[in-house]
Structure formats: structure tokens, C-alpha cells
Design goal:
10 strands; about 55% strand; disordered N terminus
Length: about 190
């Protein structure tokens, strides 16, 4: 009798694919994606579903935790391997493993290129007390989990003594550089 053995890699990939896909960070992603093309229907073709789950994303070079993502519901698409979230709460960590941003959203999609696409009631809260920027709100945002670059439309920034609105924003969450691109309005409190 000949026994057929399933390779260990196949077993791991089927049972732990949701975790493995998110742990491996790849090189930077340069393709432009607009926030209007964010989420697909997660009910069709999903192979893995989980509720109240947490995913940890580590930097492959340093081994340090860079993101912790918790969601009420998680779905993984069969063919694209994209991961869909409902009621997401993410924490971004700096090099010293201290949380620097808390990110909340109604829905999100994590692509296999490590791009996090957020949609619906997004709040990005700064945890650094020394920063003058406290919170960013929007309905659509894209975050590259490798470079920490973000792109958002129709945003509002809240600071210690100001509120700014803009039609578009580019930023890097790691170094707190924010560029408001069009139709910028700012109100200051004196």
C-alpha cells in the first residue's frame, strides 16, 4: 500500500493562511489605487471566516511588531487572498514598539501587497502627546503597511488649536508628514 503525504507547506497554508499572509511583509508597493475602488462583496467566494479575531503584522527584517489589527468579522477571499474586515481597530507601532496611531473603520480590505484599504467612519488617532495633530477623520483611506504612506479623500484634521479640511491628503504616519492637496480650509483657535 502506497501512502500519499500532503506537503507540510500545503497544510500550513490551508489552515493558517489568514495569519501567514499578513505576517510576511513584502517590498514597497507603487501602484496607485483610488479610495473609490476599495471594497468588494465579502459574502461571495470567502474561504475563511472568523469573528473577533486579531492579526499581528511583523517587520520581516527586524522581527518587530508593526501593526496589530482586531476586527469583529474577518473574511479571506479564495482566489485573491485579500482579507476583508468589519469593524476594524488597528494599532500602528513605532521602532520602539510603542503605539503611535490608533485606526478605526467600519470596513477594510488587506491586499496581498500589504495595502490596507479603509472605508466608512475612519478615525486615525495620534497617541503622541507631543504632536500638535490629534486626529484625522475621513470615509476613505489607503495605508501602505510597508512604507506607512497614506492617501485619503475628504479629510478633516483636528489639532491642539486648529481644524483643517481638504479634498485630498498624502501622508506618512511613521514620520508625521502630512500634505493637504486641494481645497484646504483651516480654522485656528487663539
Amino acid at each position: 500500500m502506497i501512502k500519499k503525504y500532503i506537503p507540510l507547506v500545503y497544510i500550513i497554508s490551508k489552515s493558517l493562511l489568514l495569519i501567514i499572509v499578513t505576517i510576511i511583509l513584502c517590498s514597497s508597493y507603487t501602484q496607485c489605487i483610488t479610495p473609490k475602488r476599495l471594497l468588494n462583496n465579502t459574502n461571495n467566494y470567502s474561504s475563511h471566516k472568523n469573528t473577533n479575531a486579531t492579526i499581528m503584522i511583523y517587520d520581516t527584517k527586524t522581527g518587530k511588531l508593526t501593526y496589530k489589527i482586531t476586527a469583529k468579522n474577518i473574511y479571506q477571499h479564495n482566489t485573491t487572498q485579500n482579507i476583508y474586515f468589519k469593524k476594524i481597530f488597528a494599532t500602528m507601532f513605532n521602532k520602539d514598539h510603542a503605539p503611535i496611531w490608533y485606526i478605526q473603520s467600519d470596513q477594510a480590505k488587506l491586499t496581498n501587497k500589504k495595502i490596507l484599504l479603509l472605508s466608512g467612519n475612519i478615525q486615525i488617532n495620534n497617541t503622541l502627546k507631543s504632536s500638535s495633530l490629534k486626529k484625522i477623520t475621513t470615509n476613505h483611506s489607503i495605508i501602505d503597511l510597508v512604507t506607512h504612506n497614506t492617501y485619503s479623500e475628504d479629510i478633516t484634521l483636528y489639532g491642539n488649536c486648529f481644524i483643517s479640511t481638504s479634498m485630498k491628503m498624502r501622508s506618512n504616519l511613521n514620520n508625521n508628514i502630512i500634505e493637504l492637496i486641494s481645497h484646504v480650509k483651516t480654522s485656528y483657535t487663539i
